[in-house]
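<goal> How does this chain fold?
<sample>
Here is the protein in question

***
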Amino acid sequence: MQHLPGGSYAAAEPFLGSSTDEFLRAAWRAEGPLLVGADGDFLTVLTGLLEEHGATASTDEVYTAVWNAIETNRETAEVVRRVRAAGYGAHLGTNQARNRGAFMRTGLGYDDLFDVSCYSYDLGVAKPDPEFFRRCAERIGADPREILFVDDSARNVAAARSVGMTALHWSFDPAAEADHTGHDALVGELAAHGVHL
């Protein structure tokens, strides 16, 4: 659905230099509990980590460049619109802390793009925990067996299948390690599962 052009390392390196890898690993570890709704503000955590690693840029500057510089893939968004226009529900299931989730909902317009959005911080559990998929199905109001799940992670696909969902391992990046890549392949796979656009 989205990507960070160049990746996290390239986005963080101008601020962190040689400690970029160490900083990102520490930031992702600290973000972990927040992905499942733990109390706390990631920006406060990030401020401490930037000080610890000797960065001089502001927290807002680094957060915007590394966490909020994500871009929605236009072709993927168009497939979502086509799914909805064809009369199907299109829903989002994503692992995010509250700060980034809020940006995605309004800044990227996902509240308007999707029928139902399932953010891990709000559900209290994250992919690939099977409970994430059960809670998504409850929020959508459908039996898991009625849901076709699409994800670029093989672990998430396996977890969705474990609760009864049909799941596709797909990515818009041709270089990704996914069973299917590219939007033509996605549309074809959707049709093969009865979702005709």
